[in-house]
Amino acid sequence: MQQAHEVTFYQEPFPEPEQVVQVKVNRVMDLGAYVSLLEYGKAEGMIMLSELSKRRIRSIKALIRAGQIMSVAVIRVDAEKGYVDLSRRRVSPEEGLEMDERFAKSKMVHSVMRHTAGQTGEDLEELCKKTSWPLYKLYPHAYDAFKILASSNADDVWAKLEGAGHVISDTLKAQLIENISRRLQTAAIRLRSKVDVTCFTPEGIEGIKAALRAGQACESDDVKLTISLIAPPCYAISTTCIDKAVGIKTIDTAMEAIEEEITKRNGGFVIKTKTEMVGDVEEDNLADLYSSDEDSDSESDQEGMGELDEEQMKRLEKMKAADSDEE
Q: pLDDT digits over 149-158, tens only?
């Protein structure tokens, strides 16, 4: 049995030829560098001098140093001797970036496995055999399954695992979900879009409220929306979520619902900024404060749809009515 720190991230003990992997440089020699494969139980590999760069190498130490972490391509694997030949020069910058992202996800998954094993007394390798390793085969990445486990659809993942013959106790399920949710929460992102919503018909404020409520109704258990008044007639639609794609889709759907509802009431709708990632909540509110002509209308003053300021809405109506009279 492997020791806990030697358990591989994946079920396969070694990578396949041409696969891109993440390594840490252990020793730099005249003929190349010895490295450990971080995803594969720190198995040893070597990058020959000729595989370090496409350019002529004058000094190996100018290219690589001990302790450095990098993405490399697998050339050959000797499973019997447990040795892997690697190449740095065969990895494109794009492949390197993709590998960095994949490794970060895999490292997080393995970290949750280690933490859960320590809490429950489970053997790490046995725990991986019935949870994370199968998830890499059932989903594009085990991290994708983890995001679902942290959502309201966790039962879908458990059902797939059980369908593949992996029985997991309710106690272990609860512990995994707790650890996954805690880790993913630290990686949650904040998304926001800004829209102008106006209504010059007799419905006025009520028409705007109805449209914004239609947008609010597009939220889900996993993606909660906050619709806030920044400065008349500009509103921010924001959310803090784990899955960026789902968050963007939810906000975009909300904007469509608002536009449809306000258009029915002969009002106006304009997207000021498309859905994008923003900083943390405090930074976000501070930015709105200084970009607004009226400090009292900053996003931080408006917590959500349920607390729309009647005075601000009336002021908006008066402003628009005045503009209309001038025209």
A: 988 899 999 9
User: How far apart, in whole angstroms, are the C-alpha atoms of residue 185 and residue 191?
Assistant: 14
Q: What's residue 21's pLDDT?
A: 96
Same domain, 287 and 254: yes
Provide the pLDDT confidence category of residue 226 given band limits of 50, 70 and 90.
Answer: very high
What CATH number is associated with residue 73? 2.40.50.140
- pTM (predicted TM-score): 0.63
> Is residue 307 predicted with pLDDT exceeding 70?
no
Integer Cα distance of 23 and 72 in angstroms: 7
Are residues 105 and 209 both part of a single domain?
no
pLDDT digit string, tens, across residues 163-172: 999 989 999 9
Q: Residue written as tokens 């039962």? A: 155
CATH number at residue 152: 1.10.150.190
Asked whether residue 11 is domain-assigned, the answer is no
What is the rounded CA–CA span in Å between residue 211 and residue 239? 18
**pLDDT band at residue 189 under the 50/70/90 scheme:** confident
For 110-138, what is the mean pLDDT? Answer: 95
State the total domains in the chain. 3
Residues 132 and 116 in one domain: yes
- 223 and 296 in a common domain: yes
Structural domain including 143 reads: 96-185
